[in-house]
Specification:
With about 280 residues, the chain is an alpha/beta fold. The chain is globular.
């Protein structure tokens, strides 16, 4: 472990840029719930546990047609939780590292909480591959519109996990709105915002192709492997190094650095080496 942390610190010091790959695990140290398995999900949402509904079943767009009050109860609660939660100090440390590097950092995250933006990262250098709960779209995607959710409050009865009416609505057709988040079995997600982010990411990749780059992948599991795949693919170049931080699934390809710690513990340990 000590050797891996030392090596990670050296690679970051030598890098010209950082790709930060972030999964749900990075938010656990901020106090966000871990949805790993139905037991963790049900601990966070007892009303859904009573219904026996798993996370993948609940995170499905059909609830906005079948039961909008429950759908917005679930997503409204998450939106309010993300707004109330302060990103942990590991975000600031990552930002400090990237400030010293010529290409800075680009963030590739499957999280929909907006915490990298809240922590002060450049929004033009973030790709949210599963969308953002801080942005809404029409359920029918009537005009291919996506709009910020910052002016919308969702009142949720937390004991029943039911959202009070009126539910968020589309500013064009006045129909029901939904989060601009990629859900399971979701054919109605408007991906245009994420596609624009992806174009900027590809441009950064081109700039970084022949430079010394470190991919720091944090808290990205195998259940939803979007971030793991992106970081592994990016790190296949000879001058790119993958650092995988994950307390449970830290196995990494040959030539990578594996650190089986929680996000904040690993970032803090590397930073202490940096400062020593």
């Amino acid at each position: 472990m000590e050797k891996s942390i030392q090596l990670a610190c050296e690679r970051i010091r030598e890098a010209e840029g950082i790709l930060i790959g972030a999964g749900a695990g990075i938010g656990v140290d901020s106090g966000l719930p871990d949805f790993r398995g139905n037991e963790g999900f049900w601990r966070a949402y007892p009303p859904i546990a009573k219904l026996g509904i798993g996370f993948q079943e609940m995170a499905n767009p059909r609830w906005f047609e079948r039961d909008p009050s429950l759908a917005w109860g679930f997503y409204g609660h998450r939106l309010n939780l993300y707004r109330q939660t302060i990103p942990h100090e590991g975000f600031d440390i990552l930002k400090q590292w990237s400030a010293h590097l010529p290409l800075g950092a680009f963030v590739y995250t499957s999280n929909v909480d907006g915490h990298f933006q809240n922590a002060g990262f450049d929004s033009a250098k973030i790709i949210e591959c599963h969308g953002s709960l801080n942005h809404f779209q029409c359920v029918t995607d009537c005009k291919r519109m996506i709009w910020p959710a910052d002016q919308t409050e969702v009142l949720v009865d937390e004991e029943r996990l039911r959202a009070a009416e009126p539910h968020p609505e589309c500013p064009h057709c006045r129909g029901l709105a939904r989060p601009n988040v990629l859900m399971f079995g979701d054919w109605g997600w408007n991906s245009s915002r994420t596609e624009e982010q992806d174009q900027r990411f590809r441009h950064w990749q081109q700039q970084a192709s022949d430079r010394e780059i470190v991919s720091i992948e944090i808290g990205a599991g195998t259940a939803v492997p979007s971030v793991r795949h992106a970081c592994e693919q990016f790190s296949t170049s000879e001058n790119h190094t993958l650092i995988r931080i994950n307390p449970r699934e830290s196995e990494a390809p040959r030539g990578s650095i594996s650190i089986p710690l929680k996000a904040l513990d690993a970032i803090t340990a590397i930073n202490e080496k940096w400062l020593s």
